[in-house]
Each structure stands twice: as structure tokens, then as C-alpha cells.
Amino acid sequence: MSAVIEARGLVVDRGRRSVLRGVDLALGAGEALSLVGPNAAGKSTLVRALAGLLPAARGEVLLQGRPLAGWARSALAQRVALVAAEDEAPDRIAVGDRVALGRYPHRGALAPMTGEDRTAVARALRQTEIEHLARRPLGTLSAGERQLASLARGLAQEPSVLLLDEPASHLDVRHQLHLFRILDDVRQRGVAVLAVIHDLPRAAAWAPRLALLAEGRIAADGPSAEVLESEAAERAFGVAIRGVPVVDGPERLWRFEEKS
Questions:
Q1: What sign for the dihedral angle of Cα 122, 124, 125, 127?
Q2: What strands lie across the sheet with 192-196, from one edge to the other?
Q3: Distance between CA atoms of 62 and 228, rounded to whole angstroms?
Q4: I want to staple 102 with a disulfide (CB 3.0 to 4.6 A). Which of 24, 26, 153, 165 is the partner?
């Protein structure tokens, strides 16, 4: 599978410290990838670098085989959407207007919304089940509702690469299940989807492929169950992770055993 987006030897510095220390990672069209790792491993830094929001000190990120530096900002924003862990949009902006900002890269400054733009916004609101919130200011929403509005903005962008940083952190169980159904639908339409997921069983259940980031590098990358049960995961998290297959299904029950 040819890569839609790829990091090659990516080094990213924050201040005087290298947060990413030579990351190699590639994602193909229609592929789903769970990115996991211990706290402060650099997961948020990696997704922001893949989105072109943080510069590389060394190495590079390529989109469709071209370095990000070779893309115009608007063209890059049409193809790569980042749904951050926390939405920093102003509290006073209405949900519908926030979602409509996802269309900005497609229509440019001051251009009016087209029928295609309105259709994309309506579809994103419907997919995330927040149509009834369209006129509400962001500041009046719960953390979970605000997170769904941020996801809707990313969907309205209609990218070829969707990057998500802890997309389910504020969602209840029903909305978590709905979120991952949305991501499955997006992936099946050919979008490359990478999600940083804190819940390891959920990360393994959602994506068949999992990448482990530890100490600024990809310590393991492959089938989700194999990565979670690897020695690299045990070193990274300080616990042994074992999956017990469920008798009547492909899912696993995961057991965590602290290292002595």
C-alpha cells in the first residue's frame, strides 16, 4: 500500500528538548491506525507535526509523496484535518459556524458558502448527531458536545487524512461507540485515519494496526494484539499486557499485570 502520509526520520524539538527522535511512520489510503504510548511520549507532538503545525528539526513529513514544505498552506489544509484533544475556538462562536470553518480551505477568504459547502456542513452535523446544537455557542456545550463539534469541523473539511488526538476522552459510552462507527465509515471511503487513543483495549478493538510511541520513537508497529503484548509495550507502560480471546467472538479481554 502506497503511503498517503509518511514521517521519515522525523525529529521535532520543543525548546531545548527533542520530543520526537527519529520517527518513521506511514499510513495508506483507507487505513486505520491507533497511536498509543505512555504520558509525555510525544503523541500530540507527532500528530501536530503530521498536520504541518510543528516544524521538523530533522527528517521530514511527506503527503502524497511530497514534503509538506512543498504544499501551499490552503492545499495542505484541504487534504489533512486535525481534530485536537481540546478545541481552542472562541466560546461565543456558534456550533454551525465552527463546523463551517472546515470549509474555509476549499473556498478561500471572504468567499461565500457554496451549495457544496452547506451540504458538507449539514452532513458533518448529521454524522455527529449534533444538528440540534447548530445555533448554540460553543461555550454553552458540555466537554463531550464540544468534542463532537470539533470532530464535525474535521469531517466537513473532507480531508484525505484525518488525524485525531484523544477523540473519545470526553464522550460517554454511547457516543464513543458512535464516534468509532463514524471513523470506520470515513476510512471505508478511502480516508487515512490516525487516532491517538489512551484506552488501550479500545485502541486495539478499533484498529487492526497499532503503533506504539515511546521515548520519542516508534517502538512497535503492527497488528494491534501483537503490539500490545510485545516486550516493547511492557517496557513502555511498566506493565505486562495480555489478551484473553472471548470464546464467541474475535474480541479480547485485556489483562494488565504490573511488573514486579
A1: positive
A2: 80-83, 161-165, 192-196, 32-36, 209-214, 217-223
A3: 28
A4: 153
